[in-house]
Amino acid sequence: MKEYIPSKIEEKWQEIWDKEKVFETPQRSEKKKFYNLVMFPYPSGTLHVGHVKNYVIGDIVARYKRMKGYNVLHPFGYDAFGLPAENAAIKNKIHPEKWTFKNIEIIKSQIKKIGISYDWAREVITCTESYYKWTQWIFLKLYENGLAYKKKAAVNWCPSCQTVLANEQVVDGKCERCGTEVTMKHLEQWYFKITDYAERLLNDLEKLEGWPENVKTMQKNWIGKSTGAEIEFPVDGLDMKIKIFTTRPDTLWGVTFMAIAPESPLVETLVTEDRKEELSKFLRKVSLEDRFKRTSLEAEKEGFFLGRYAINPVTKEKIPIYVANYILYEYGTGAIMAVPAHDQRDFDFAKKYNLPIRVVIDNPESSIDASKMEKAYEEEGVMVNSGPFDGIRSTKALGKIIEYIEKEGIGKRSVQYKLRDWLISRQRYWGAPIPVVYCEKCGVVPVPEKDLPVKLPKDVEFLPTGQSPLSLDEQFLNTTCPKCGGPAKREADTMDTFVDSSWYYLRYVNPKLEDKPFDKEDVNYWMPVNQYIGGVEHAVLHLLYSRFITKVLHDLGYLDFEEPFENLFTQGMIYKDGWKMSKSKGNVVSPDEMIKKYGADTLRTYILFMAPPEKDAEWSDAGIEGVNRFLKRLWNNVYSILPKIKDVKAENIQLKDKSEKDLRRKLHRIIKKITEDIEGGFKFNTAIAGLMELNNSLSEYLNKSRELNLPLLRELVEKLTLILSPFAPHMAEEIWHDLGNETLIVNEKWPSYDESALQVDEVTIIIQINGKVRGKILAKVDTNEEDIKKLAFENPKISSYLKGKDVVKVIYVKNKLLNIVVK
Ligand SMILES: [Zn+2]
Ligand SMILES: [Zn+2]
């Protein structure tokens, strides 16, 4: 009998798939399209089995959908620019490009060995000129439409990565990439105006029914919409007003001071002459504080009185204006109305600087005494000390107060978002140059489309110094102005890699197009992506940016759709010894080693069998052994009968006895189950359990039966091979071929199940006497009570129990149970 040796069959089938180009997707087809996409990797090292999980899940979906008759687009590429590559290149003293392409080669060979069905003809690598030319084109489109702009602002700075970071890349005050505490710098930087799309990005989340709720919630919170009022406070003695935003206009009568962010230009305007010197001391001190720490609830509140007063527009009282360390310039207007009685941070500040605390919302349960307050009362309640609104419930008063403010000309209803504009400048080398030049005469001039790409020079000193490496390259830097022909300097910053990945799914549709980033008609046929698969860590970075860029391109008339990803699946991680796999922990499992030991089919099947794919799972050597044993047993079962069924057709199947009926029922039940498991939320682990169950039934049948039912076995092996094929495609091809088929199994149809085979025709009825189980009888399905009773009473075992007793009552539960009550 043929032995199961994966190394003998896997590479062979991979070569055949390649040669026959079976995974190359026709641009158009009669079939319905299915765009199946996995998030592409940073080529910053070799893959471990945790990375591989993403690709295996995607491959099952792609292979299944192909068998279901779809025209499936299943591409792969590399997010090849960016810090991971640059940092690793520096560490290994090698050019980032060389290092990146070396890794791409390794990753590609790793993936090919796993047998993932990618259309390699559509491979996209974001650091190639033919790709980043169009990333630069997207920048120009945003610039032309007022959605890319430059401004000087306080930005997040990672001292270790030596570059600025977008807000999305700062996690708990630390650099998302390296974990270093982020500091602040004032720099002139390029931004994308994602805030113009805040409302649509928020509202359209509702349309994304195929997205996990947690991802939508994360985006919603990140966008952070709040409704309230914009109120203007006149400054005493100056002809100006300070604008603030508040979600609590109901506390307006309780405002007893104002606080301004140290970074706000208002500080310089407001400070009185005699306090200037002391102010600069205070500002220097604050600038040394960490801005995430200083604004936290627990941080020590510190402030400085500017010598100036504002007028509370409803009470007309004079209130002092402070500069305070707990106010962030980036949020709201950089100034707040402070209500110590009803905001904890204002309360702490007021206590420290002896400022009045006035209760304007009283606790309906027990009245608050302002002089005895130990913390702010932030809940709702009944309005007091609030002029016309006294006695009204604060939640009810909110709308009326906004109306009042509008009528009095003090302010207006307003909506605010936490979302900030997307900072895209990076002071690093390995990225797409920003296509802009600076001319002494003309100012900022975008590079015309015909001059794209602005090529990234290769011979550059790229060590991180805090200064853009390109600014040290005179040859790159000095150019002529496209407008006036005079001398000009190029922008030396490169773009955030998240710009590269915000549109790559469009490029897969036309990866080789030279005069356009994509063809409108082709993109409208293929997009949106039907199934997107990746990690939940991209919830507010990549997934939000991609939605934004799609909406912009839609509004500019390049796309007919507004949302890029119809369904999103976020997979769980693979742990080893309780930890996330990492080189430093030494707990990395390499797919190459596992393939060498067990074969790709075992690796694929095990990764999916470990746990539901959305859950985290712990790698187990015994687990992969077990899956390998299952595949061997299946192989041995099939090959033990293969010579006998090779020339048999799965036709005119006659079922002689119960064991044959049961076996065929099991086959069709499992086809039904696996189909439903895949369709109904990717339950691959239970689908594989179904394959194991079917294989066990086959073993049982082969062990017991004397005369084999060959047409039945032919049907079973054929269909078992088909439903096995997405999981263990190499083994499936081999069996399919050995069954005498000349086709490739990847081109076969997914089997349907025979509804009539699922029918159970005999059932086991439990017989109880006075509630105790006394026996079982076999009966035709749906036999009536009279006939069941007859069968039971005729049964010798049962009748012996009944001897000499009176039957008082008989209860029959159809197809299940007969309970006889006797005395
Ligand atoms: Zn960093
Ligand atoms: Zn010029």
How is the topology of this model organized?
Layout: H1 6-20, E1 33-38, H2 49-67, E2 71-73, E3 77-78, H3 83-91, H4 96-114, E4 124-125, H5 129-144, E5 148-158, E6 163-165, E7 170-171, E8 174-175, E9 183-192, H6 198-203, H7 213-223, E10 226-234, E11 241-246, E12 257-260, H8 266-270, H9 276-287, H10 291-294, E13 303-311, E14 318-324, E15 335-338, H11 344-353, E16 361-362, E17 382-383, H12 394-407, E18 411-416, E19 422-423, E20 425-426, E21 436-439, E22 443-446, H13 474-477, E23 478-480, E24 487-490, E25 494-495, H14 497-500, H15 504-507, H16 520-526, E26 531-534, H17 542-555, E27 568-570, E28 574-576, E29 579-580, H18 591-598, H19 600-609, E30 617-618, H20 621-645, H21 658-679, H22 684-704, H23 710-724, H24 729-738, E31 762-769, E32 772-780, H25 785-794, H26 796-802, E33 807-813, E34 817-822
Parallel strand pairs: 1-2, 1-26, 3-4, 12-14, 26-27, 28-30, 31-34
Antiparallel strand pairs: 5-6, 5-9, 7-8, 9-19, 10-11, 10-18, 12-15, 13-14, 16-17, 20-25, 21-22, 21-24, 23-24, 28-29, 31-32, 33-34
Helix pairs in contact: 1-24, 3-4, 18-19, 19-20, 20-22, 20-23, 21-22, 21-23, 23-24
The chain binds zinc ion (2 copies).
Characterise the protein shown here.
The mean pLDDT is 94. The chain is built from 26 helices and 34 strands. The chain has 823 residues and is of the alpha+beta class. Helix 19 crosses helix 20, helix 20 (621-645) runs antiparallel to helix 23 and helix 21 (658-679) runs antiparallel to helix 22 (684-704).
